[in-house]
Design brief:
Blueprint (H helix, E strand, L loop, with lengths): L2 E14 L2 E14 L3 E5 L6 H8 L7 E6 L2 E2 L5 H11 E4 L11 H6 L9 H14 L15 H13 L5 E5 L7 H16 L4 E5 L3 H4 L4 E6 L2 E7 L3
Parallel strand pairs: 3-8, 3-9, 6-7, 7-8
Antiparallel strand pairs: 1-2, 1-4, 4-5, 9-10
């Protein structure tokens, strides 16, 4: 299977006052296209830093990040912003929905960066909401939806522009167990039935069971990578 993400000798260091904090140390990693990867590890292991680097939200201190043949580590801030808008869908723990907008208008937000007209944006948002099981909730605002429903809206927003892959940072961290399982089943569906590559940070071993692979980090280094039987 072709690689979607190829990472070579990746380092990330932060400067905090006089102190240098090394978060990632020479990481090498391949993520195949069409995979559903769970990134695991203790707090401070570098999971979210790695996720942000793959998603183009941050840049490495050194090393290579190649995604579908493109070296994103060489891109300027403007190039990265443009690349993200075309290639990455983001799902965060706390939904990040605009409270004054309806579900449909929240889903439409990424499409405002495209050349699509209003009618087509509306249609695409309706299709995305239908895909996540919220076709009848498009006119509701976030405060009229449950936590699980809000996360479904966030997933619809992440997929509405048909990105190359999804980045999910603790997508079930703020949900009860039943809602969490429904969200994980939805992500699994997007991976299996719609071919979306998904890279998910999670602390929850039960959440990781929905992935096809788990990658364990500790102190900025890859300590284990395993395929899960489904």
């Amino acid at each position: 299977m072709a690689s979607l993400v190829s990472i070579r000798n990746l380092h990330k260091t932060y400067q905090r006052g006089p102190e240098k904090i090394d978060v990632l140390h020479g990481l090498d990693l391949e993520i195949p296209k069409g995979d559903f990867v769970a990134l695991m590890g203790p707090s401070g292991s570098g999971k979210t830093t790695l996720l942000n680097l793959i998603g183009g939200l941050d840049t490495p201190t050194s090393g290579e990040i190649e995604i579908e043949g493109e070296r994103i580590d060489r891109m300027s801030a403007g190039q990265l912003s443009n690349w993200r808008s075309h290639h990455v869908g983001f799902v965060f723990q706390f939904y990040n929905l605009m409270p004054m907008l309806t579900a449909q208008k929240n889903v439409e937000l990424p499409l405002l960066l495209t050349k699509l007209g209003g009618a087509q944006r509306k249609r695409n948002a309706e299709i995305a909401l239908q895909l996540v099981g919220l076709a009848d909730r498009g006119s509701h605002r976030p405060n009229e939806l449950s936590g699980g429903q809000q996360q479904r809206v966030a997933i619809a927003r992440a997929i509405v522009s048909d990105p190359t892959f999804l980045i999910c940072d603790e997508p079930t961290g703020d949900l009860d167990r039943q809602s969490a399982e429904e969200i994980l089943q939805l992500l699994q569906l997007l991976n299996r039935e719609h071919g979306k590559t998904i890279i998910m940070v999670t602390h929850d071993p039960k959440a990781a069971e929905y992935a096809t692979h788990t990658i364990h980090l500790d102190k900025g280094e890859l300590v284990e990578s395993s395929a899960l039987a489904h």
